[in-house]
């Protein structure tokens, strides 16, 4: 995730969320949390803190249930887009214990009806990237919601560089990949 971390994707500069080289614009606002909680709705136990000298989201897990972070997307989502991809940097604190070692990404018209995809999270304290491709027809649906969930569990998960974009070839159906969630 960060410049001195060898697990950071090669095409991901220090301002990763603001703009990633070769990718369309981020549909999420404040995906690098440089403006604190701005644009995000967060459950209790979630805060923006400094990690490795940069702002990042710290999720304190609850043994009693899921902790959720969401953002409502407004203007800027291509009206005819059908395929989206999410990229998220995550890191578990070494003492973290999750009932299931995963973070769930959600994207759709509401968090209750949004498609969900659990993604494995590696232990050991190193940053790594999780990805999700979502193919769906959201034409005429506004607003859309993006969210991530973790838990139940104990300990902390850090999240940074949350990036959601419409696939660059979304108008060309021959380039669509099967949705992995």
Mean pLDDT: 79
What does the overall shape look like? Answer: globular
Strand order of the largest sheet: 1-4-10-7-8
Q: Structural class of the helices, strands and pairings?
A: mainly beta
Low-confidence stretches: 1-18
State which percent range the strand residues make up. 35-45%
Distance between the termini: 24 Å
Helix content, binned percent: under 10%
- Helix count, per DSSP? 0
Largest sheet: 5 strands, antiparallel
**Taking Cα atoms only, what radius of gyration do you get, to the nearest Å?**
16 Å
Spell out the helices and strands N to C.
EEEEEEEEEEEE
**DSSP E strands, number:** 12
Could you describe the 3D structure shown?
This protein is mainly beta. It is built from no helices and 12 strands. It has a 5-stranded antiparallel sheet, with no helix packed on it. Strands 2-3-12-5-9 form a 5-stranded antiparallel sheet, with no helix packed on it. Strands 6-11 form a two-stranded antiparallel sheet. It starts with 40 loop residues before the first strand and ends in a 15-residue tail after the last strand.
Characteristics:
181 residues; mainly beta; 5-stranded antiparallel sheet
SSE topology:
Elements: E1 41-42, E2 46-51, E3 54-60, E4 67-73, E5 83-92, E6 97-98, E7 102-108, E8 115-120, E9 128-135, E10 144-150, E11 153-154, E12 156-166
Antiparallel strand pairs: 1-4, 2-3, 3-12, 4-10, 5-9, 5-12, 6-11, 7-8, 7-10
Characterize this entry briefly.
With 181 residues, the chain is mainly β. The chain is built from no helices and 12 strands.
